[in-house]
Design a protein that fits this description.
alpha+beta; BirA Bifunctional Protein, domain 2; Rossmann fold; 2 domains; 8-stranded mixed sheet; 5-stranded mixed sheet; 15 helices; binds adenosine monophosphate
Length: 433
């Protein structure tokens, strides 16, 4: 992120950042690719509010998850409602799906979105309190593993189209209501012997949500995790078949993946397939990096958890700031902003009055024109025209303004010609390559 001046009286909120004009080219490119990819894969756009009832997240993400316990921006509205700035996009989309009965739009219904999310995390490189996610969801129509692939594919292609290399998809399954309890027991059994070495959070997780023990970033806990039992041995037949078939699709498509038997993801609403996508490499400056770019999974129980009908669903989200970071590390640029072709120069009061209307003619005709109309001196304006690298300067002086004409100056050759203002656009178009 750009450096801030410490002496300015107001600073942006900790963990929240501006996207300055110099960064916008990355964001425009990512949004453009997102729209094109989503449309190519037949996803419909959905936008949900940034604020939802706190209960929605408590119920769907789970009371004992880090997000709900520690990271939500929650406040009371003037009307006394308990509201939360959304920490992720899926819960709000499922709320909307149930509220509007969106199942009639398609079985399954494929939706995509992008927008800001809010989590009260400890800010560090690549981790913010306000950040943007772009996501894909496939809701309804059954729990076929092919839908998991149909979420991973657009995410993967989007990253590929943005020229991010060395992508690897970590995959796992976390089973279902039938097979998870036995695995849970095994985990508790294993962790019992290590309880004293676990961090404070994990000691709490041990009681409430043992699967989350596998998710801890504390280095001691990570060490203990290495020997923890993997769920793969405890899957029921259906989950086993589901995961096997999912992996067969991955193979068929040649998607680069790695089995990560301890990947559980932090939220309660997931079941069966879970995934995370990483990129790694060495930047031109020799800095090695390993970035988590996206994550997601199946969430077949969420609709019911929110009071809707049982509806299978799967989805995933990409961290947009992380993409920007990867693009910067890899020195991937997407060209410069399109330049103006014409620069309008005015000298004198009457010319200045007429200049805005002339500029409007060019804007309407779709010819990119630039100006520094607030400046008086011809030289300053010519210098500005030169700096912009335009092909043509239009000079509207006092004399020209009186005779409703304008000078067309070829910036390369210096050749000038006077034409009537009303013919200026057509004459310029003729000269532009
Ligand atoms: P999650 O919703 O936690 O699975 O995150 C999905 C993706 O969003 C991650 O892989 C990151 O790329 C990104 N992400 C999550 N949390 C943050 C954050 N606090 N700041 C920036 N990006 C984030």
């Amino acid at each position: 992120m750009p450096k801030t001046k410490k002496n300015s009286s107001f600073q942006s909120i900790k963990g929240m950042h501006d996207i300055l004009p110099s960064e916008q080219l990355y964001w425009e490119k990512i949004r453009k690719e997102l729209k094109e990819t989503a449309e190519a894969y037949n996803f419909l756009r959905i936008d949900t509010p940034i604020v939802e009832n706190s209960d929605l997240f408590q119920r769907s993400l789970g009371e004992t998850t880090d997000i709900v316990e520690k990271q939500m921006f929650t406040f009371q509205s003037r009307g006394g409602d308990k509201l939360t700035l959304r920490p992720e996009g899926t819960a709000g989309i499922m709320r909307s799906y149930i509220q509007y009965g969106l199942s009639h739009l398609g079985q399954p219904l494929k939706l995509y979105y992008d927008g800001p999310m809010f989590r009260y995390e400890q800010p560090q490189a690549g981790r913010y309190r306000q950040f943007n996610q772009a996501g894909f969801e496939i809701i309804g129509g059954g729990d076929e593993p092919i839908y998991d692939i149909q979420v991973i594919l657009p995410i993967f292609r989007l990253l590929e189209n943005l020229k991010i290399k060395n992508l690897i998809i970590h995959v796992n399954t976390i089973g279902c209501k039938n097979c998870r309890p036995a695995y849970r027991k095994k985990l508790i059994e294993y962790y019992k012997n290590h309880q004293k070495d676990l961090c404070k959070d994990c000691n709490r997780r041990f009681e409430d949500n043992p699967l989350r023990l596998l998710d801890c970033s504390n280095s001691d806990c990570a060490e203990i995790r290495k020997e923890a039992p993997a769920i793969l041995d405890d899957l029921c037949n259906n989950c086993h078949k589901h995961f096997k078939s999912f992996l067969e699709y991955m193979e068929e498509l040649g998607l680069p993946y790695e089995l990560d038997s301890h990947l559980v993801r932090g939220l309660d609403y997931y079941n069966r397939t879970v995934f995370e996508i990483f990129t790694s490499g060495v930047s031109e400056e020799g800095k090695s990096f390993d970035l988590a770019l996206a994550g997601g999974g199946r969430y077949d129980y969420l609709a019911e958890m929110l009071g809707g009908r049982s509806t299978s669903a799967t989805g995933g989200a990409i961290g947009v700031e992380r993409i920007v970071e990867a693009l910067k590390l890899l020195k991937i640029n997407f060209g410069a902003r399109p330049k103006a072709k014409v620069f309008l120069i005015n000298i004198g009061d009457l010319a200045r009055k007429k200049s805005l209307a002339l500029l409007e003619d060019f804007i309407r005709a779709g010819v990119r024109a630039s100006e520094s109309l607030g400046k008086d001196s011809l030289n300053a304006q010519l210098r500005a025209a030169d700096k912009e690298g335009v092909e043509i300067a239009l000079i509207l002086g006092q004399k020209e303004a009186f005779s409703d004409s304008v000078i067309i100056r070829d910036m390369k050759s210096g050749v000038q010609e006077t034409v009537l203002i009303k013919k200026a656009v057509a004459e310029v178009k003729k000269r532009l390559k």
